[in-house]
Every structure is written in C-alpha cells, then in structure tokens.
Amino acid sequence: MNFYFCFGILLSFMCLITIPTFSTGMSSSRNNYDDLIKLIFNPINEENLPITIFVIQYFMDKCFNISVENGEIILERKKDIVFKQLFNLSEEIEDFNSISDDKLSSEFKIIFESFMLSEQDFNEFFQINDINKNGTVKKEEAYDIFLNNVLLCMLLKEDINKIFTKYTKNENQFKYKSYAIMTDFLKLSNSEEDKNYIESALKNSNESISKEEAGRIFFKSPLFRNRINNIITKYTNDQNQCNYKEMIAGFGDDYKGYKSFVLTYNQNTQKWEKKITK
Fold first, then answer.
1. Which of 97, 105, 209, 244 is most exposed, with the fewest beta carbons within 10 Å of its own?
2. pLDDT surpassing 90 at residue 171
C-alpha cells in the first residue's frame, strides 16, 4: 500500500489533467479570474470532491476576498498574500504580491488539480481496503489512510504551522525555549500528555532547532494524532468499521478551524452562497 500511496502523491504534484467543462450555475466574475472560478466552483466538484473544494477555498481565502453578489462569485485580490509560504510550488517567484492576475490564477489551477488527484487517491485507497464493498473499512485502516494523505494533513497542520512561523527567526531557526510558545501550543490542546510530549522531545536540544525538525516533533504529538482519530471515531460503528464515504462528505463540517470562507451550491436556487457552518 505504501508504494501505491507514494506513487499517487508523486502524481498529485507532478501531473496536470484536463477538467471537463460543466455548467457552473453562475455568471462570471467581474475580475480576471473567470477561468479559475469556472474550474473550481462547479457544483459537480462539490458533490464528487468535497474535501478538495473545502481545502482549496481555505487557501484561496488567504489570497482573495471571496463574495457572492446576485449569484456571481467575486474574487477580489488581497493587498498582501502569503501564497509562497503556503504552497512552495513556485520558488522562483520572489514576490507573489507583484505577480500578474493571470499567473496567480494559473498557480491556483495547478494546485487545485493536484488536490483533486490527492482526493481521488484517498478514495481509491479506501475502496481497495473495503473488503466487504459496503462503504466501510476497519478503523485502523481508515486512520492509516487519513494520516498519509497530504491534502488532509496539510489543513489539519495549518494552525500548528502558524506557531512555527511566529517563532522562527533568522536562518530558519525555531526558538522553542519560550513560555509563550508552549502557551500558544496548549491553546490548541489542554492535554497534559501533549505538554509532556513536547517538553520531553525538546529537552536535549539547543536553544533553537530548525523549523523542519520542530515540525517533525510537533506533528508526532498526541494532539495531531487525536485530531485525526476524533474524526474517524465519529464514523466508526460498534464493529470497528469506519464509514469512509460519510466521513469524506462530512469533512468540512468536522473541521474545527476557521471556515467562515466556505461557499456551497444551493440546489434549490442553483446559486453559490455562504455556507452556514456547524
């Protein structure tokens, strides 16, 4: 399974595929992002790729003010965007605030397509392990598939990444010996287990460690594992079988972070609108 997973992720970040053209149920943007809007905000995408649509909107919110006016989706570019820090897909570009609208749109198209492939891999791995062909897999298998999915882990790690960025100074060094750092981390979890794990993992280090090493330590903490486990447990029955189809469909509602940016397609009005988040 690890071979197929790694191969799938490789494809996710190297391949581009052609997206079929469907009716989007909306008029075009007044800005320079018409093609991007038509590609992403397609009702069929929300139905078939619910995780991709949720996560791409999360990152688009970092670069655009997204609104709906009279059924028309409007993307208004923010003055300061953090595109490079989020994606690292175009290292040759030094200043993302200075790139053209066309280039920014193109970057998001590439990212959307890689996200889409990642979600397709996610579904495929579940189907391979669905021995009874009833939409369920063992809870342990669901956890393993979830943990190894770049798309999902990218989003669940985002608020922890904010702590790294806040306390990473010159030469990519994370200044971890600070009460403020542990305070920020424990805002995400009040667990004594999390606190003890982090303190134990860092106690033999110097005053600072690389940001990458900090990431390896924090993302192995009980906090991150428990986030995944809590989602999976919600969809696991008494026979230890996880309903992965329901889990995928409900991911946006189960995500506990900031999500007031989410648009959803109303089948009754046939228009996109702000989603009432749970």
1. 97
2. no
